[in-house]
Specification:
- The chain is mostly helical.
- The protein has one domain.
- Helix content is 53%, strand content 11%.
- The strands form 2 sheets. It has a two-stranded antiparallel ribbon with strand order 1-2. A two-stranded parallel ribbon has the order 3-4.
- A hairpin with a 5-residue loop joins strand 1 and strand 2.
- The chain is globular and about 45 Å long.
- The mean pLDDT is 94.
């Protein structure tokens, strides 16, 4: 999908240029709030199961490892995800695709479900829209890990497989529009 990559290049570069003052300010505030670097990188599973470093704004205190007050704001508004525009620019991610997970989930998929790994991970997807407030949803369950592993993750896999079989540039634009209007 050459058109998809061209879209990703143009709009990630444009987004980084336009949002760079906001990103800089948010990184400064995150650094002050967490007593650490305002940005951090985390290993994620990407296309073809290849590991890559995802960029985010730091939302966790360096010493206590708890989410800071400003970090809660960053996470709730998804502003902590904006540095991933750089991941899109360099080609590790796309605007639309399955959200990249930490090692131990997507890399253990078997059979037809492994088709998800053929896709470039994205900033947004139908699954990420459905589970927009995943942290709050998990907090409602006594055994959040079990709920994630038995309910949420399998549903995300199902939705991401649907995307795999039905993906199109127009479909991606619809998901981007839904994401944009979800934010505002």
């Amino acid at each position: 999908m050459l058109l998809k990559r061209l879209f990703d290049l143009v709009f990630s570069l444009l987004g980084l240029l336009v949002l760079s003052p906001v990103l800089f300010l948010m990184a400064l505030l995150a650094a002050w709030d967490t007593n650490s670097n305002g940005f951090f990188m985390q290993q994620r599973v990407g296309q073809h199961g290849r590991l890559f470093k995802i960029f985010k704004l730091r939302s966790i205190h360096a010493k206590t490892h708890t989410i800071s007050a400003f970090g809660e704001f960053l996470r709730k508004t998804k502003i902590d995800e904006l540095p991933q525009l750089f991941n899109v620019l360099i080609g590790d991610m796309s605007f639309v695709g399955p959200r990249p997970d930490i090692p131990g989930y997507y890399d253990f998929l078997t059979g037809e479900k492994r088709k998800i790994l053929e896709l470039k991970p994205g900033l947004t997807s139908e699954a990420s829209l459905k589970y927009y407030d995943e942290d709050a949803l998990l907090a409602q369950h006594e055994d959040a890990l079990r709920y994630n592993d038995t309910i949420l993750f399998p549903d995300k896999v199902r939705m991401n497989l649907e995307y795999y079989y039905n993906r199109s540039f127009l479909g991606d634009l619809k998901i981007i529009a839904k994401t944009f209007f979800r934010q505002f």
